Amino acid sequence: MGSMGDDKTPRKRGKGVEYDYETLGKRMKSVVDDDNVDSFIRLILEGNWDESISVLRKISGTDENAIKSASQEILEHKYFGLVCENKILNAVDTLTNEIVPLDINDRARHEKLCRFLVFPEKDSHVKSSSKKSKLEDHNKKLLDELFKLLALPERRLVDAYHGVIDHAPSERLQVLQEHKDKICFLRFSHSGKYLASSSADCIVIVWEVMLDGRVSLKHTLCGHQKPVSCISWSFSDAQLLTCGLDEVVRRWDIESGQCVHIYEKSGVSLVSCAWSPDAKYIFCGVNDKSVCMWDLEEGKELECWKDSLTSGISDLGISSNEREIIVTSVCKENMIKLFGWESKSEKLIEEDQTVTSFSLSEDGKLLLISLSNGELHLWNIDGFVRQLAKYKGNKCVSRSCIGGMEHAFIASGSEHSQVYIWHRQSGELISKLVGHCGAVNCVNWNPTNPNMLASGSDDCTICIWGGLSQGKMKYHSS
């Protein structure tokens, strides 16, 4: 994975790791014709250690000794991550029940692992710079094992890469022109059937995506007195939350287009909103630096969270793991907090630049952060929090997103009136979509039609983009 400016070479860059498809192709000489290879690569890059080992064992024609060696590298990476997270019991379990049973006769290596566990204060891992360096070394070794195992022919690798690229949006299919001011926010519903848009005109419009891909106006939602800064769909797509900037949150019925409830709090204003995974509650960011949970139907505040570190809640996202609800919020201008609502656990992501917005992947495991200097940073937030990639090339404070076929793309707006699209894993800037005549403020992928992308601009319009297979299906502007 990698940073990307105007360089045309597909590149991957992890922590301390840099390689490209050309290098990978040259190093992979023999043929392994197995679909599990692609899954294995993806799992390694996403940090899903246990699943990657499971898939590794399914790859046909792989030598058992190579599997053991690669498993050792993967499990050591997992082990160091657990110790760094202070999950000592889990680390001990990984060492004794996963690494040692591999029966790799390397006493010095095992002693080093044990020494790191028993005397972490004497090991360079606990010093932030040295710890990062050590993890980078293990990441390099891990990728070296991947090179050795996945000896794919260069042609197969290139064909697979371009097969994904061909599914990136490349044609403007439709222009929506109902808003009277700049577009602030776009969000497709979970089923992909609807698109909600907000504008500085204080209006929210619900659009319906027809079976032929055409987008048509369904409802115009009026009632907010300030521009709507946040939109959130219920998981059934039956209802919509909208939050006016420093105002109130409104809940709308999509079938009728009517407002069914207003959530407000005396003495303060709301700045962001999100649904709980079970749709029984809503969460709101408040301008008094707190996050509140409300009962959906009665509108009662059930719980409120606030701490001394928080200087403001300007953006909010909700995901869940097997254990609890995870609240993701911008708590300081350059800091994002991951807060376990039930356990009260906290993890912090600190950036060097001001965070302008963020978006979560559909599964809640990846976090894409937009920064004031135009960079996008992709983080894994499932378990051991770590940065996966940086994307460069655009100049805009915009809402970016992850999406497309197999969530293979990163999309962002720019002040140059273009939409930028990167290949997520390689970091290659693969497309600049031209169609707006003002800065592009927000983009959003249709979750069920990976070829469809929407972008909103200062020119008051929304562009609907499609891939090569849809290129001839251009519709009249709405």
UniProtKB/TrEMBL annotation:
CDD domains: WD40. Residues 35-90 form the CTLH domain. SMART domains: WD40. Keywords: Repeat, WD repeat. This is CTLH domain-containing protein. It comes from Castilleja foliolosa. InterPro entries: CTLH_C, WD40/YVTN_repeat-like_dom_sf, WD40_repeat_CS, WD40_repeat_dom_sf, WD40_rpt, WD_repeat-ST_regulator. The keyword Repeat applies. Pfam families: WD40.
